[in-house]
Amino acid sequence: MNDPLNVTPLPIFPSTLYCMELHNDVSEFFNNITDSIDFKTIGDNPHWVSKYNLLDDYSEIKKQFTDVSSRVLSEVAGAEKIKITTSWLTAIEPNTNPIMHRHSNSWFSSVYYFQDSPYSGLEFKNPIERDIDLVNYGTQTTPGSLMHFQLQPKKNMLVIFPSYLHHKIMKNTFNEVRHSLAFNIMPDGITGATDSTFVY
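RESULT FIELD:
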């Protein structure tokens, strides 16, 4: 019984993140406007946010994000048209530790990182609850066994992920405010077929 097992992993129903790099001119735009943005706190989440339709004020930038998101989601989700529903800037002060959350009433969500200073990353929680949690998974961890995943962002990185994923901004351990842009995505127009047709 000590023979090696010929195991073929079948990662069904995975939650996939889509990461890509945008051009410097986009990050320069947001770095230039951040100081002029009004931020406020909402509920119990200990970080600052702008208004929730921020990109509506910058139609050309909004179109860039819509176009790149549409290209990704047309390939991976079969979306013919998409629209950005809400969009906002976040401001995380030093030593702030935001709460885990998800974006309801959305299909996909995105975060764009436009700073080149070091700041906290993004942590995701496995949406599948397990009855037995193993504390130490060892070094050979497969994606299907992860209960949490931490993404370390880089300047110009755009991340698109399913909105059902619970996530949080990791604690800001640096002595500067960490900013990012977030937005939510929905299909646009007629979707589905027959008795499952709906117009978004």
